[in-house]
Amino acid sequence: MAKGILGRKLGMTQIFTPEGLAVPVTLIEAGPCTVVQKKAPDEDGYSAIQLGMGARREKLITKPVRGHLAKSGLKAIRYLREIRTNSIDEYQVGQELKCDLFTLGQLVDVVGTSKGKGFAGAIKRHNFHRGPMGHGSKYHRRPGSLAAKGPARVFKGRKLPGHMGNERVTIQNLEVVKVDPERNLLAIKGAVPGPRGGLLLIKEARKAR
Predict the structure, then answer these.
(1) Domain limits, the chain
(2) What is the value of pTM for the model shown?
């Protein structure tokens, strides 16, 4: 069974090992999630399950989504996300998934949306080096030459100033340090994308070491 669950980032803290070492961890409120739909290759072209998490006022949900949830006998749900899996037969619509899907020491991938930084220059956005700061240089924090003389255009993919952050980011091979099923809490070693309160998708590590 390919494991996966939705969660909400609570913030960072530290946990001390029996040897007295401080381990930085991110606390995640993982679930409970409900299986809303199963997608099979015969009908949908691929194999996946759709998970729902969180409550919402029914009047804030569009009629198509309301009808979609009604098929599963579910009420208003705030978040809906899909997880690809080849083991859809091991799930049932309406089944509740909790953080005890994961075990201590297991490696996971965490997907989230990074913090938006607004419009940023090339030094902050792409780690460019600045030019000389003397008054004669006149070229302190600008991005440098933009294009070849022949094409007379800027090539696609050129690193320039622009909107920084607010992108889908996946951090791979993070270790589960603590599992608390009673409070639906996961403690994961290291940092994960996004602000406090941000939505996260926690999955089995695809490239586990």
Answers:
(1) 35-88
(2) 0.81
